[in-house]
Amino acid sequence: MIYKVYLIDGDNGISLLESTFKELKKIQDDILTGFFKAINTTIDVIQEAMSKGRRVNEMDRVLQSEDSIIFIHYHPLSRILFCSISDADDEILQIEEVVHKIANRFWKKHQSDLKNFRATTDKTRFHTLIADIENLTIGGRIAEVFPQLLVVKKVLEKVLSMGMINSLDFQVALQCTGKNSPLKISRNLNKKRPEINEILKKLEELDIIKF
User: Fold this and answer.
1) Which end of the chain is least crowded, N or C, by CB within 10 Å?
2) For the residues 108-116, what does the mean pLDDT come to?
3) Of 55, 49, 91, 92, nearest to 71 (Cα)?
């Protein structure tokens, strides 16, 4: 689940807007420390490039840890950093896609408001974007993936005996309860996540699971 979405001015690091879907609880301090360190580093890179007269293009950064995914998108037209903090279980490509949509929605709705903010520091007009963020992220749940087994265990055993899947595929399929993410399955079976992702893709193609 996406915990938070931030909009941060790439010129000076000032926060324009913050949308929270879930509190970070006990891991909050470590994650936020890493998050703001990444923000400051990104702003330094942008400012250095601009000071040398170089054009700063669209830029994405992904920071993954055991507990979280931090995604930072720099939107050059607005010079705003669109950022998210989410569960490590979430699918990165889904996060990237929705953050890009938020950035485009912001630019279409608030281009003139952004000019006003940079002249007056008034951020109140940006608050309407919170509803858009909630809708686009489906309340923060858009990147959640919980595969669900479509067949009973006896049928799965028959598929195994026919050689259509191997023993690891079988074990992965049994983990698809609709409550386990690919990351959790990889941890439960002590396998690397890319390997689990490939198996899940195979199982989906065989109509054994659905996402």
Assistant:
1) C
2) 94
3) 92
